[in-house]
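User: My collaborator sent over this chain with a note saying "see what the structure looks like." That's all I know about it. Can you take a look?
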Amino acid sequence: MARIPAAARREQFIDAAVRVIARDGAAGATTRRIAEEANASQTSLHYCFQTKENLLLAVFEHLSESLRVDSEGVNGEEAGLAQTAERLLTRTMQYAVDHLDQTRATFAITMWAQTTNPELAVRMYDMFLAGWQDVLCSAKETASNEEIASVTRMVVTLADGLSMQLLTDGDRERTMRDTASACVMLTTFVETLLRRSA
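Assistant: Without extra context I'll predict from the sequence alone. Here is the result:
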């Protein structure tokens, strides 16, 4: 049997973990199940990640990075803050609709971390917020750091709610219709926020 490079093996474990977490939840995603899903030994998994917590953090980072790469098409340099926020929310929800397993795994890992290691949960969520805040900072419209942070939290709040609805009912078309409605509310929020500070 050919030897698999460590980086490729890590990627296999991360992909397998996403599938197992989406199916069994984070608590049910044992290292044994993940190793079996990856057609590898548990020893190899522990060699790559040492602990389940390290593996789940790597999965979360991978999922966050996948979403960030997918949101690179949101070009704030050509748009104001409201339009950039709309684009980010729409792109995020399209990603959620197109990648249900990844969306389910992201929620499962976040909730697992919240119950087992709240500090890790905060660190993970802060990493997620920072990525989205970077996108919103690219808007051509000038806004304070506090305003950008507020808009970031609102986009995340809407995306979380829409994603939970999607995972519950599985209605992809309705999710995108509701996303369009949420974008109207988001624009009103951003415009009101910026007017107050003007």
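A starting point for your reply to your collaborator: The mean pLDDT is 89.
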